[in-house]
Design a protein that fits this description.
Largest sheet: 4 strands, antiparallel
CATH topology of the largest domain: Ribulose 1,5 Bisphosphate Carboxylase/Oxygenase
Strand order of the largest sheet: 7-1-8-9
Number of domains: 2
Distance between the termini: 39 Å
Shape: globular
Number of helices: 8
Structural class: alpha/beta
Order of helices and strands: HHEEEHEHEHHHEEHEE
Helix content: 25-40%
Radius of gyration: 20 Å
Number of strands: 9
C-alpha cells in the first residue's frame, strides 16, 4: 500500500521526455519530502547482451563531491603496516586475528582492503566475502601495499560501479543537502568512468541505453546524455 506522502508525488514521470541533469535536480529535491537527508541515486541500463559475450563492468570512481556517507573501512595487513592503516583512520586493522573474525562472520565494515601478501590467506574466505561484494580486488585498488591511499580514497567518496546480470548499474552520487554543482560534478565523474570503461570493451552499439535519477523515497526521471557512448 502506498503511503499518503508517496501519493502526493508526481505520477508517470517515466513517461516524460529525458532532460539534462541540470534541469531535473530541482524536481528531484522537491520530491524529497521525508524527514531524513535522502540520497540522490543513479540507475544506468547498459547494453550488456552481446552476441559473443555479456558485458561485465566492475570499477571504482572517486566522487569529487563525496557521498555524504561515513564508510567503515577494515584493513587486513602485516604488523608492519598496521601503524600506517591506523594513521589513515581505518576503522578496523589486523592480520590473522582479523581474518579469523571475518571467518566467524564478523563483517562489521563496508569496505575491506588487504595487502598482497595477506591476500593468500584472505582469498580462502571467498564464500563469505564474495556474495556481499567485500572481497578485495586489485582492479578496484583494494589489494595494495599503498594502504594510506586506499583508505583515504575509500573514506573520501570512492564508490564501486558494477552491473548486475540484467545490465543495471545503481549508485548514489550525493544527498539532497548537497549543492547542485556538487551532485553534477559527481555525475560527470561517473559518466567519465563509464566512458573510460567502454574504451576497454569490445561492444557493438552504445554502452548506455538509459539513465534514470531519483531520490531514496522519490520517483525517477530520465536523464538525457550529453554524448552517446
Amino acid at each position: 500500500m502506498k503511503s499518503k506522502r508517496y501519493k502526493k508525488l508526481p505520477e508517470k514521470t517515466n513517461e516524460l521526455a529525458s532532460e539534462a541533469i541540470t534541469n531535473v535536480l530541482s524536481l528531484i529535491k522537491s520530491n524529497c519530502t521525508t524527514k531524513f537527508d535522502e540520497s540522490i541515486d543513479l540507475s544506468f541500463r547498459i547494453n550488456n547482451k552481446q552476441k559473443k559475450n555479456e558485458v561485465n563492468i566492475r570499477t571504482v570512481v572517486n566522487l569529487p563531491g563525496g557521498t555524504g556517507k561515513k564508510i567503515k573501512v577494515a584493513v587486513v595487513c602485516e604488523d608492519t603496516k598496521a601503524h600506517e592503516a591506523k594513521e589513515t583512520n581505518a576503522d578496523l586493522t589486523g592480520g590473522d586475528e582479523l581474518i579469523e573474525k571475518i571467518k566467524n562472520g564478523e563483517l562489521n565494515f563496508e569496505k575491506l582492503i588487504c595487502t598482497p601478501s595477506m591476500m593468500v590467506k584472505l582469498s580462502k574466505l571467498g564464500k563469505i566475502l564474495g556474495p556481499k561484494g567485500l572481497m578485495p580486488n586489485p582492479k578496484l585498488g583494494t589489494v595494495t601495499n599503498d594502504i594510506k591511499k586506499a583508505v583515504s580514497e575509500a573514506k573520501a567518496g570512492q564508490v564501486e560501479i558494477r552491473n548486475d546480470k540484467d545490465g543495471n548499474i545503481g549508485l548514489s552520487i550525493g544527498k539532497k543537502s548537497f549543492e547542485d554543482q556538487k551532485i553534477i560534478k559527481n555525475y560527470n565523474a561517473v559518466v567519465d568512468a563509464l566512458e573510460k570503461e567502454k574504451s576497454n570493451l569490445v561492444i557493438k552499439g552504445d554502452l548506455i541505453k538509459q539513465v534514470f535519477i531519483t531520490s531514496s523515497m522519490g520517483v525517477s526521471y530520465k536523464i538525457k546524455m550529453d554524448k552517446n557512448f
